[in-house]
From TrEMBL:
<keyword id="KW-0808">Transferase</keyword>
<dbReference type="Pfam" id="PF00398">
    <property type="entry name" value="RrnaAD"/>
</dbReference>
<dbReference type="InterPro" id="IPR001737">
    <property type="entry name" value="KsgA/Erm"/>
</dbReference>
<feature type="binding site">
    <location>
        <position position="85"/>
    </location>
    <ligand>
        <name>S-adenosyl-L-methionine</name>
    </ligand>
</feature>
<comment type="similarity">
    <text>Belongs to the class I-like SAM-binding methyltransferase superfamily. rRNA adenine N(6)-methyltransferase family. RsmA subfamily.</text>
</comment>
<dbReference type="GO" id="GO:0003723">
    <property type="term" value="F:RNA binding"/>
</dbReference>
<feature type="binding site">
    <location>
        <position position="13"/>
    </location>
    <ligand>
        <name>S-adenosyl-L-methionine</name>
    </ligand>
</feature>
<feature type="binding site">
    <location>
        <position position="107"/>
    </location>
    <ligand>
        <name>S-adenosyl-L-methionine</name>
    </ligand>
</feature>
<dbReference type="InterPro" id="IPR011530">
    <property type="entry name" value="rRNA_adenine_dimethylase"/>
</dbReference>
<feature type="binding site">
    <location>
        <position position="61"/>
    </location>
    <ligand>
        <name>S-adenosyl-L-methionine</name>
    </ligand>
</feature>
<keyword id="KW-0489">Methyltransferase</keyword>
<dbReference type="InterPro" id="IPR023165">
    <property type="entry name" value="rRNA_Ade_diMease-like_C"/>
</dbReference>
<feature type="domain" description="Ribosomal RNA adenine methylase transferase N-terminal">
    <location>
        <begin position="20"/>
        <end position="192"/>
    </location>
</feature>
<dbReference type="InterPro" id="IPR029063">
    <property type="entry name" value="SAM-dependent_MTases_sf"/>
</dbReference>
<protein>
    <recommendedName>
        <fullName>Ribosomal RNA small subunit methyltransferase A</fullName>
        <ecNumber>2.1.1.182</ecNumber>
    </recommendedName>
</protein>
<dbReference type="GO" id="GO:0005829">
    <property type="term" value="C:cytosol"/>
</dbReference>
<comment type="function">
    <text>Specifically dimethylates two adjacent adenosines (A1518 and A1519) in the loop of a conserved hairpin near the 3'-end of 16S rRNA in the 30S particle. May play a critical role in biogenesis of 30S subunits.</text>
</comment>
Amino acid sequence: MKKHIPLKKFSQNFLIDSHIITKIVELINPKSNEALVEIGPGLAALTKPICKLIDELIIIEIDKCLLERLKKHSFYSKLIVFHKDALKVDYLELFNKKNKLIRIFGNLPYNVSTSLILYLFKKIKIIKDMNFMLQKEVAQRLIASPGSKLYGRLSIIAQYYCNIKILLHVSPKCFRPVPKVDSIFVSLIPYTDYFPYFTHNIKVLSYITNLAFQKRRKILRHSLGKIFSEKVLITLNINPRLRPENISILQYCQLSNYMIENNIYQKYIFV
């Protein structure tokens, strides 16, 4: 089979380490009765071994050349193929076709991983779990705690929705071409029974965190000053002189709920 030349515009780094591939398949632990969706199958490093364990796999691949390569494999008959940008796929349609929660996995391109994860959170009610290979810094941002330089809007929204676990650290040597950064394989499991955080409306929480972290070096009194007076922040037991990275997820939820309960969110956001 002709060698595939990785395309920079799709940020392609293909997993080639057989030990890591085996470990990832074990961690995903696919079952035949599940609705599995792979984003970016690439050269089929995960696709091939997973197809040995299940009868059907939905794949989303933007690169037409890679789809042509997949057609030459014996397991192709097990694939339901979407030649699309993963950010433009109707995941609700996939859920409705299977009538069951979907499991999503993949080696995500570094250039779209954050926007794709945030996009998938909007579909969280139809997702059973997500297992992704990510750039190390993105994975660390997902699990970052208040006070960390990596703690930000992604940390808050991700931890609001999911229990996140780092499953595997992966060296650049496990990919071709070799990336300049380390990678981490993570699991994101949406909360279903126990919810550690609560806001009346996630759009308001998203708006507040976006506003705060746009000016992350400024103290809250300035970055959120157009919404919350210093007096309100003190009333909510939030120090107005702290920076956005020093405020907990619970406190951001508190701010969100204050906006909603006092009917002031409508000035700033369409809900």
